[in-house]
Design a protein that fits this description.
The structure holds 2 protein chains of 2 kinds.
Chain A lengths: L3 E5 L3 H13 L4 E5 L2 H7 L15 E4 L8 H10 L8 E5 L4 H10 L3 E4 L4 H42 L4 E3 L2 E8 L7 E9 L2 E9 L4 H17 L6 H16 L9 E9 L4 E7 L4 E5 L4 E4 L17 E4 L3 E7 L11 H14 L5 H12 L9 E7 L5
Parallel strand pairs in A: 1-2, 1-3, 3-4, 4-5
Antiparallel strand pairs in A: 6-7, 7-16, 8-9, 9-10, 10-11, 11-14, 12-13, 12-15, 15-16
Helix pairs in contact in A: 6-7, 8-9
Chain B lengths: L4 E6 L6 H20 L3 H18 L2 H15 L3 H17 E6 L7 E2 L1
Parallel strand pairs in B: 1-2
Antiparallel strand pairs in B: 1-3
Helix pairs in contact in B: 1-2, 1-4, 2-3, 3-4
Classes of the chains: A alpha+beta, B alpha+beta.
């Protein structure tokens, strides 16, 4: 493997000695700099663009040098983003603790005191280079994983329903993953003329594993909703799915809370099932709030789920807000109090725009929009009822 | 009769040794001049350098002298510095290099 080592030392004798030892040990790409400034030039640090083709794997740095000493030089090198990962080993005639302490603070990874034994010098170099290779590999793996997560994020965002604006109904969402990928998932579908199904679920946890579960739910729903409309049947199928795939001994147990509702604009009713989800809230024309409370336990806990469906009249209902627990859960705060704040925000109104309303809810229900949990809100504006 | 001091040096360093020894002789002259000027800081720095590379080339005595020069310069000890420079010059006159293919660490013989 090609290894480039840069020796920075004002003593020609030391530079040549180190070069000879390294070459004998099989390191043939050795660069020599008689000062920190010469090293900066070699590393491309004096160029305006800051770019240099030179790839250095290890720096052996003298501490006591005229003008810029080895400690200052190390600091400068470590300040450069593209050079930061190059390990710097101090080769010094000083064994004073204070000097070595400053060297480590500046970013040195190891030190060798002069006069050094060749064997010791080579052990240290091999050890530092092995660590560097391991770090480089890890960085590559992390970058690859990050690229894959970014693609997965785009895929996840692409399957979310787009805002719907039909005669009598408008549906929009606010979606904010706590990490790159979210365990929250939503969707809405027009079942027939004037009938709409709206779904929101929150898979336990967040990140990649929760996102994979939520994506599997999304795929199931896409095929299920056109054929099975009744909320009870839909929840039974989803529960079976969770039990079958995510509650076995080969994977961590996963469950999700969910709310599924069918809005019928012609019959002016809503049928819904709430499986352990925070209550959905509806604003009525008399400025009171109706809650879509829990009707069953979360999905994925028990095989035979006792699902209760509720039917509520749609008349006098102007707005429905659905949300995941990330909106109302805050460490050290009562969820009940935060839900009351959400209700108050709905009653106060003052904004016609759904996105502005959801932002208002976020700000008033919590101290801000930052969260350790995934966050999702859905507004359903019933425009013919306002 | 001049007693020779034999120093075993790694064969790999052979090409550097003539210049290395030439520079050491210049170093003796430079140290003497610096002592006349009482430039203890420069003497200390030269001693520090000698301490660092001496035994790396196989010349343990240079490392020892360098270390003592560094200390004497720090103490501004004119007498000791003078004696050390004389010892250094004498050593360089007596030294005889033998190149060896094996790595030889810390070995000197008279």
């Amino acid at each position: 493997m090609r290894t480039v080592i840069l020796i920075i030392d004002d003593s020609l004798d030391t530079r040549l000695l180190l070069k000879s030892i390294l070459e004998k040990a099989g390191y043939h790409e050795i660069l020599l700099a008689d000062s920190a400034q010469a090293a900066f030039s070699l590393l491309g640090m004096n160029e305006e663009s800051g770019s240099s083709e030179l790839k250095v794997d290890l720096i052996l740095m003298d501490i006591f040098m005229p003008e810029t000493d080895g400690i200052e030089a190390t600091k400068r090198i470590k300040q450069e983003e593209r050079l930061r990962d190059i390990p710097v080993v101090m080769v010094t005639g000083s064994s004073e603790v204070q000097v070595l302490d400053l060297a480590f603070q500046a970013g040195a990874i190891d030190y060798i005191t002069k006069p050094f034994r060749r064997a010791e010098l080579l052990w240290r170099i091999r050890s530092v280079l092995a660590l560097k290779r391991e770090m480089d590999e890890r960085k590559k793996r992390e970058q690859k994983l990050q690229r894959e997560i970014e693609v997965a994020k785009k895929v996840q965002l692409s399957v979310l329903s787009k805002p719907l604006h039909h005669n009598g109904i408008s549906i929009e969402a606010f979606y904010q993953p706590s990490e790159e990928l979210s365990g929250d998932m939503y969707g809405w579908y027009q079942i027939s003329d004037g009938r709409y199904a709206v779904f929101l679920c929150d898979v336990m946890g967040h990140g990649v594993s929760a996102a994979l579960v939520s994506m599997s739910i999304r795929t199931l729903l896409r095929d299920l909703v056109p054929q099975v409309v009744d909320p009870v049947d839909v929840m039974h199928r989803l529960n079976d799915h969770m039990i079958q795939f995510f509650s076995n001994t080969y994977s961590l147990n996963r469950y999700c809370t969910a709310i599924y509702m069918v809005i019928d604009l012609k019959k002016q009713v809503i049928e819904y099932v709430n499986a352990g989800h925070p209550p959905g809230l509806a604003l009525l024309n008399d400025n009171t709030i109706l809650s879509f409370e829990r009707t069953t336990t979360p999905l994925g806990f028990v095989p035979k789920l006792n699902v209760q469906k509720k039917t509520v009249p749609l008349e006098n209902m102007s707005l429905i807000l659905l949300y995941t627990d990330g909106v109302v859960e805050e460490p050290g705060k009562s969820i009940g109090e935060n839900i009351e704040k959400v209700k108050q925000t709905l009653r106060e109104g003052g904004v016609d725009d759904s996105q502005a309303l959801m932002r208002n809810v976020m700000v008033k229900a919590r101290t801000g929009t930052s969260s350790v949990d995934d966050i999702c809100l859905i507004t359903i504006q019933l425009t013919s009822n306002t | 009769l001049v007693l020779k001091i034999t120093v075993h040096v790694d064969q790999e360093l052979q090409e550097y040794i003539p210049m290395f020894l030439e520079n050491r002789k210049k170093e003796v002259s430079l140290l003497s001049e610096l002592l006349k000027k009482k430039d203890f800081e420069q003497i200390r720095m030269l001693g520090h350098g000698m301490k660092g590379f001496g035994s790396g080339y196989g010349f343990d005595f240079i490392t020892t002298i360098g270390k003592e020069l560094e200390g004497a310069a720090r103490n501004r000890d004119v007498g000791s510095i003078g004696r050390l420079i004389q010892d250094y010059a004498k050593y360089l006159n007596q030294v005889e290099v033998v190149f060896s293919p094996q790595e030889v660490d810390d070995e000197e013989s008279e």
